Inverse folding.
């Protein structure tokens, strides 16, 4: 088959915004232009593809965006795109715009959209962009480091007032159903305890730890909880701590402040590497791939594999899904998932064992 000549590609950001998305877009644009390929910015994620809301991006359009948070292309969660009628509308617009391929930046939902487009003849490459770090096929996702640093900064500020007033703060951090932000920031802030959805949490042990620390003269306490915990968990835990330890306890939900802010060096560099790699994959005639970080290297994975592995890792793979896989492929996924779970469990153990 003759290699396709790329003249124009699109780039979009979809799902929740993440610091570093602009750096990824910048890298995509600069790499494509260097190779003689025109770039069109698709506004508002897949909705922009349906509504033909686009702009041509030249080199100066991405100047001074690497240091900005959010996404200047904007983002949205487009339910219409999930329907076949919406998909056909998107395909028509892509053809009218002469898009030879699209780089799609986001999380698993974004990659499912890229997969659907690839299956219908529009080559797509995904780039991980989510603060939750919950794309299982990648060790790291763009935005994760900035979000964690924001949490650390906010918790450090809370600790100051906790020390002044001899208080405890139960702090809920983002991450959806994944506890990566929680366990890492709990370690980094010296939290007294950490609760995540994935693993058991001993409330009574936490209470006893706080009581013991009081006898040593400790005045401030921080407890980190993941938003994946049941509704009201953090508030209820705060009340329990105060009732059983007599330490005044406040609940704080950091919420979407974690999504914003200027990206850290790591997010800027990782996003830039991934953006360049994504364009090179398209130019090499590749499609239906997601750019990920594995063992410190930027590589690509088949989206079909990545989405199925994500189900295996998160325990969501149904018997009929598994039956479609080659047994050796499934065994490999399970082995990888077990190793990843072990790493997470070790972080969780550390978060709850070295603090008091």
């Amino acid at each position: 088959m003759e290699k396709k000549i790329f003249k124009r590609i699109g780039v979009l950001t979809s799902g929740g915004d993440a610091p570093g998305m602009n750096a990824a877009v910048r890298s995509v644009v600069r790499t494509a232009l260097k190779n003689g390929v025109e770039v069109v910015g698709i506004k508002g994620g897949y909705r922009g593809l349906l509504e033909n809301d686009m702009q041509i991006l030249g080199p100066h359009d991405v100047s001074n965006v690497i240091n900005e948070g959010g996404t200047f292309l904007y983002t949205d969660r487009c339910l219409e795109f999930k329907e076949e009628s919406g998909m056909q509308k998107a395909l028509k617009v892509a053809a009218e715009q002469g898009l030879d391929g699209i780089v799609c930046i986001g999380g698993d939902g974004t990659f499912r959209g890229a997969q659907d487009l690839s299956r219908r003849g529009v080559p797509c490459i995904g780039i991980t962009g989510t603060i939750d770090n919950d794309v299982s096929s990648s060790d790291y996702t763009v935005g994760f480091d900035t979000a964690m640093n924001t949490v650390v900064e906010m918790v450090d500020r809370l600790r100051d007032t906790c020390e002044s007033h001899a208080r405890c703060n139960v702090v809920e951090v983002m991450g959806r159903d994944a506890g990566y932000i929680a366990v890492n920031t709990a370690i980094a802030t010296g939290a007294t305890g950490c609760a995540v959805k994935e693993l058991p949490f001993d409330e009574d042990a936490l209470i006893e730890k706080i009581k013991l620390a009081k006898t040593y003269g400790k005045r401030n306490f921080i407890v980190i909880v993941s938003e994946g915990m049941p509704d009201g968990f953090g508030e209820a835990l705060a009340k329990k701590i105060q009732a059983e330890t007599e330490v005044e306890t406040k609940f704080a939900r950091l919420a979407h402040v974690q999504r914003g802010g200027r990206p850290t060096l790591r997010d800027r560099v990782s996003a830039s590497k991934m953006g360049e790699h994504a364009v090179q994959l398209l130019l090499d005639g590749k499609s239906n791939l997601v750019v990920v970080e594995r063992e410190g290297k930027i590589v690509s994975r088949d989206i079909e594999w990545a989405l199925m592995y994500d189900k295996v890792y998160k325990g969501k793979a149904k018997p009929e899904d598994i039956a479609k896989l080659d047994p050796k492929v499934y065994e490999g996924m399970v082995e990888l998932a077990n190793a990843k779970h072990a790493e997470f469990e070790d972080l969780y153990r550390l978060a709850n064992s070295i603090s008091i």
